[in-house]
Amino acid sequence: MNVRSPDMNRRWNRKDLLGLRELSADEINFILETADAFKQVGTREIKKVPALRGKTLVNFFVEPSTRTRTSFELAASRLSADVINISASTSSLTKGETLKDTAKVLEANHADIIVLRHSSAGAPQFLAQRLKSSVINAGDGAHEHPTQGLLDLYTIREKRERIDNLNVVIVGDILFSRVARSNIFGLLKLGARVTLVGPSTLVPREFEKLGVSISHKIDNVLPDADVVNLLRIQHERQRKEYFPSIGEYTQLFGLTKERAKLLKPDCLIMHPGPINRGVEIDSEVADGLQSVILDQVTNGLAVRMAVLYLCGGIST
Amino acid sequence: MKRARALPDPMSATIIRNGRVIDPANKRDEIVDLAIVDGRIADLSAIRNPQSEVEEIDAKGLVVAPGLIDMHVHLREPGFSHKETIESGARAAAAGGFTTIVCMPNTSPAADNPSTIAWIKDRAAETGCVNVLPTSAISKDLAGEELAPIGSLKEASVVAITDDGHCVQNHELMRRAVEYARMFALPVLDHCQDYNLVGNGVVHEGYWSTLLGLPGWPAAGEEAIVLRNILLAELCDHHIHCQHVSAAGSMRLLREARARGVKISGEVCPHHIALTDESIQNFDTNFKMNPPLRSQRDVDALLEGIADGTLSILASDHAPHAEFEKEVEFDAAPFGVVGLETELGIFIDLLVHKHGKIDIRRLIEMYTIEPARLLKIEAGTLSSGAVADVTLIDPNLEWAVKIDTFQSASRNSPFNGWKLKGRAVRTIVSGKTVWKL
Q1: What stretches in chain B show pLDDT beneath 50?
Q2: Disulfide engineering: B221 pairs with which of A200, A276, B12, B197, CB 3.0-4.6 Å?
Q3: Catalytic residue, candidates B277, B298, B317, B349
Q4: Residues of A with CB below 8 A from B198's CB?
């Protein structure tokens, strides 16, 4: 996978991955196809390929993350890139340096790819417009988390062998969720039907303008679902005005054992993690046969390798 | 009203020839020569036999208007002279066709005391090429907790009180401020924002905030305070002016209240009619201001409000910020855009030419007699004997906005590169040309 074929140049010419809203269905499919090849690499004895040898990747995580950062680090290592990890607490941002200046310093150190996690929506766009390096969005505020969206698409496509015309139900805090947005944009482009479920305070009706359905009665939508994607619910820290209690949330929207019985036997249960067992999902359901939560993690590695490979080959 | 500049030497005279003189204060709209003698508007007969050289200005094809007033400007001095100074802000005003600007009190220290007001006035007299009229805060340090010394501030000759940039949340405190200001006939201006409803919102709450995951600033956050102000204007029988109105609901509230004779008014800024929230999708912080760019429905409502007189005043909310301050993450960037050097062009282009909502006469009213009446200042007229503040406008001149040519110390405009029709070509303060294209 070292040679960039003409087909590849035709199907991918972006140096950055900022979100799924700006991608075409063909671009998304091309990433997923590229990930197929990398998933196969993961089954080999020697899991490393030289695709990004000599390139430097900076994991620049201004907001805390363990699983996404680790996944990117592993993906970069398997592509033979050199990896540097910078977190908010270890960067000069704590000394008042601006995001732009910090990023310019990274670029001056010949960082080829910057993977950015940031609490402000649009921060990756901000960097991408100002840097020659590739910028990969690893989650920006409530905006997008494109590699999570892609790994969810990949997992659905892998298990159900298609995405178009599937009924995908996303449950939880849609308003503040970048995972929800990237899933919505990606799923719609690939032809899925999307239903958003959650308290009316956390499911903005503006999403209906994109062609998604909204429901506040989970029991009504579970029987027709081909995929249920449950989002992590946060309450204590910042959501007290949005719903009264975790208990009431679970009662209304939690995927309990009882509710899981409403699902078709081949319906996939997904969760981007970390899971609140007993809140948005019962422990038995999370660990049950329909759950593909750990497949998502494994696929995340292949998808991130594909994204780094594609964007890393474009950087100017 | 103290003049920013000393009057010129005696017997200086100017004749502005063949212009279309639009002087709403005297209901004049005719092609006629206008004479200026010793810094004041004079009868032509006064210079029939000139004793000294007469400057002639050919105004053929131009509108000769009373000097325009922008009653909503941030000059940033004292405290933020890296963004703007009174000197640079006044030059920007002159370049935009304004002879009088009203500056907001959110400086550092805040203009909530007579000595800061005196400092601003002195500075304006020394460095400003146009008339600079300060406002003061409603509450001490703009904190919304206790009244600023409004009586002393009136004596220091502020033209209005406002906590602009902030909004008094305590309705009782606001009620007493309005009631107290009535005793001095001092107008109250208000930046309408309910802090609870707006929270940490940075863009209009709607389709684009939802798509982009940016914290939303709902229109209801403005409308709630517009309604509060209508109720307090009635209760206190005193004028409240709603600054930079942006939402369709505010239009309905103001229209109904004004029809009932409530002492309430509203102003509109160029960006709120020229742009919608769709412009924020590239996360460009030059499209971030407070209140935010709203939906097309809101823009349409503002245009109707301008057409039917619900909105009576045009203003820029000129809010300069340095590039390094704006060049940060969207939600971390300060609110505000510069406007003095583009507002007249945008309003003529959109309101008069493109949408045909008002004619140039009404536009001039909204920049002259409307703010002059509200603030009770002697400006915005070409009456014989009045101080000769005059703006020459070419309503058909086509030009392009270039931020690099701004007189302002800042460049944070969303309109760079815009092609506009109509602009000021000469600005005259007290009979002296302070800016010329």
Answers
A1: 1-2, 8
A2: B197
A3: B317
A4: none
